[in-house]
Design brief:
Elements: E1 11-16, H1 22-31, E2 34-43, E3 55-61, E4 67-71, E5 75-80
Antiparallel strand pairs: 1-2, 1-5, 2-3, 3-4
């Protein structure tokens, strides 16, 4: 997945990739599948979490108040609106 699919303010429908962690699968299942891109791609460091050192996108849930980072290599875009 390239980061060109993720421009700030874009609404997307996501699904986890086959290699997605349980964390990513849970977030998409519980908070999605519709999200809005809050911040474009960045590599997270010093997070003390499973996403440390990964290129991530900050998403906000469309139907809830959730906001958080998902690794680019763990998601697939179904639709960009």
């Amino acid at each position: 997945m390239t980061t060109s699919h993720f421009k700030q303010g874009t609404q997307t429908i996501l699904k986890p990739s086959k290699r997605a962690s349980q964390r990513t699968r849970n977030r998409i299942h519980e908070k999605g599948p519709s999200f809005i891109v809050e911040l474009e791609a960045t590599m997270l460091t010093n997070t003390a979490s499973s996403i440390d050192g990964k290129i991530c996108i900050c998403f906000r849930g469309v139907d809830n108040d959730w906001s958080g980072w998902l690794p680019v290599d763990e998601i697939h875009v179904i639709t960009s609106l």
